[in-house]
Amino acid sequence: MAYKPNKMMIDAAKRAINWNESQPPSGKWGTPTGRRRASQIANNENLSLETVERIYSFLSRHEQNYKRYVGADVKGKGYYAVLGWGGMSGLGWARRILNQEK
After folding, report:
1. Nearest to 95, CA basis, from 59, 57, 56
2. What is the rounded CA–CA span in Å between residue 7 and residue 32?
3. Calpha distance 68→32 (Å, rounded)
4. First vs last Cα of the chain: how many Å apart?
5. What is the number of alpha carbons within 13 Å of residue 13 lying toward its C-beta?
6. Which residues contact 88 (CB under 8 A, 6 or more apart)?
7. Which of 1, 47, 81, 95 has its CA 20 to 30 A from that of 87?
8. Kind of pairing between the strands at 47-48 and 2-3
9. How far apart are CA 39 and CA 32, in angstroms?
10. What is the C-alpha to C-alpha distance for residues 3 and 6, in angstroms, rounded to an integer?
11. Tens-digit pLDDT profile for residues 20-63
12. Are 76 and 19 in contact (CB under 8 A)?
């Protein structure tokens, strides 16, 4: 079965990609996997259950990176990495899918 990211996830991933493109090489966030995930989400691609599990795993581990920057004037790489994986909307989305699949 394939799953589509929601609009908030798509918007978050696009913001992360745009920010990354404006940074010098040393200022960019993400691994090749993270940047590919952002591209998949931003392009509204079908995502496998395995990918949904990976999104949940990543966002669960990095939720604090995001929360640390909420409301801050200057955001860090961790904030944009979380956005690239669909942001906090992606965490809830993945959690709902995984709970339905159990």
Report:
1. 56
2. 23
3. 24
4. 14
5. 24
6. 59, 63, 66, 82
7. 1
8. antiparallel
9. 11
10. 9
11. 999 998 888 889 999 999 999 999 999 999 999 999 999 999 99
12. no
57-91: per-residue pLDDT in tens? Answer: 999 999 988 888 988 888 888 999 999 999 999 99
Look at the alpha carbons of 92, 8, 31, 23 in this order and tell me if their dihedral is positive or negative: negative
Q: How far apart are CA 60 and CA 41, in angstroms?
A: 17
Q: Cβ distance 98 to 53 under 8 Å? A: yes
Q: Contact, 80 vs 17, CB < 8 A?
A: no
Residue type, 53: E
Instruction: Supply 65's token pair.
Output: 């990176």
**Per-domain boundaries in the chain:** 2-101
Which SS3 state, helix, strand or coil, does residue 63 take?
helix
pTM over 0.90: yes
Residue 83's Cβ-count burial label (10 Å; 0-12, 13-18, 19+) is buried
